Amino acid sequence: MAWPIRSLILYLGLPLLSVGALSLYLWQKKEEEEWKEMIRGLDLVERDVRIPQNSVATLVGAGGFQIREIQEMTNTKINFRDGENHLDYATCRITGKSENVTEAVDLVMETINKQANWKVFEMWVPASSCGRIIGRCGETIQSFAKTSGARISLDRKEGQSLLKKLVTIRGTDEQIRMAVSLIEEKVKEDEEARNKLHLTLSNRPQRGQTRISNGSDPAIKKPEYERLIATTGDNTSQVYVSAVASPVHFWVQVITPRAADLDLLVEEMTEYYNKEENREPIDIDKITKGQIVACLMTDTKWYRVEICSVHSRADRVEDSQIDVFYLDYGESEYVSLEKLCHLPSDFLKLRFQAIEVQMVGIVPMEGETWTEAATDCFVDMTYCGQWRVLVAEIVGYKSRSKESAQSGSPIPCIKLYDPDGEPGVDLGTQLVQKKMAKPALVEGLSPHFELNGRDESEEIW
Q: Which H/E stretch holds residue 260?
């Protein structure tokens, strides 16, 4: 005869807390049994596979593409089991039809075994080619990793520019060969563009490489940048990280209704410029530093950019190279004149969304230069360009130099947190724990957002 739960507990003399614990255990047990019953009813099976901790990142892949590809190929669902990770391994559960699960297990093990045969290959590339290799928000280098199956890291140290940067590729012989081919193709593209630029500079009139003005067309009022101002009592805001120069210098987008408006703006601009009659070309003789124009990207979409410098050639205007800054994302690159068009004022109503910020509380382990490992780790921790929600704690504000294009608008100094990470531990502290940064004092900051001397910290967006 089965004893009632209450009688059993009283008999054992368990405290009230144990009653709750036992009830929760029985409820979870019931849920697990119901789930298994449902799986059996659907003719599905589950299988747990232990994955060495040093192989988890390889199995998941950049942005999760590797594990998604296995799921799609086998029509299965693969999840890592919460609370069952071990120091040496993590447990992933594969669910699906029996034959599909078997295939998925084989692919998972094949992926892990390939890593055991991985080799490390290093190659040097011109520092000037790094922008093309990385791409906007890391899109190009991520696509190379996805296409080749190799892991690719690029030396992006700050400080004095070096003539060459080191690229490290990890993978099988075939993966390395493919990755090298893709990288060399980008280097060749950049060399061709640079050769054209050098030819332009050697033949142009003596009138200066860059022409500077006070900004864009006087008839068009230049909008302000979006501002990172705390709207909660704990001085925090939700953000995306859109571009990274180093663990202490990067760009974010604030998650507000205006962030969603940016996607709509890009679509509207693309639809507008897809009509040939709407494309008003830029006159190379009238283009100026600070001018706001529209730019066509390789993804066939149009974006708002600011002219940073102009490298023109009088006899071959089509070979002119324009250095532009993507006002809504924080990236820079050289583009040809034909990719630029005048921007109607209707597309300037939305504030520029890229906000330059600085991380406080950390410094490089040695000197003033951040290591490749530290920068790459920070890129991974922030899910740069992958639109992962993070929390920025605003510590204070730092004045910009008078030479800055945004002079008068202070730089937000922040600490960054992952909502799914360890509670109360910011990403800077995590870099310190990983021995990729050293702690530093936070001092000399203003507690308020002062625009041209006016405190606007209380403004609510």
A: helix 257-273
